[in-house]
Prior knowledge:
By secondary structure, the protein is an alpha+beta fold. The chain is built from seven helices and eight strands; from the N terminus they run αααβααββββααβββ. Helix content is 33%, strand content 15%. A hairpin with a 2-residue loop joins strand 3 (96-97) and strand 4. The protein starts with a helix and ends with a strand.
Amino acid sequence: MSLFIEQYAVPCAFNTSDSWVILTPIERSIKAKIEKIGKPLKDWDVSIYRGILTGYNEAFIIDEEKRKEILWNCKTEEERKRTAELIRPILRGRDIKRYGYNWASLYLIATFPALHIDIEKYPAVKTHLLSFGIERLEQTGNTCVVGGEKLLPEKKRATSGLRRKIR
């Protein structure tokens, strides 16, 4: 037991009335950098009701096995590196506990519209997403080309979910 304590001991200073956390020196350094340049959520003038909305979790939230499969399907090492940066670890609300988290080995394919990602640079990701059907992935009002034909998804209020041709 004493050997374990010697190896993993972390000095902590409890010299203020602020909340405290036990961290390794590198974790403490990262936390200090974030606190120095960041603004705490409590000081933001926002109300957060939800986390990330994918629109289709089955396609965009994947497990470790699917992540490996997508990376394996990359044709070059450069594509693999780009793709690995696009697939980010994710914690869902149910994974977060009071003093920690339970990692469920899930990943998010982070193709947020604001990032203006060119999906053509990620063929393995594109293949994975298209396996769910383009109709499920398109945002209302976006056009896409399927089989050389320009298509526009119906508005969400439409019950048929069919697409109409753009003339």
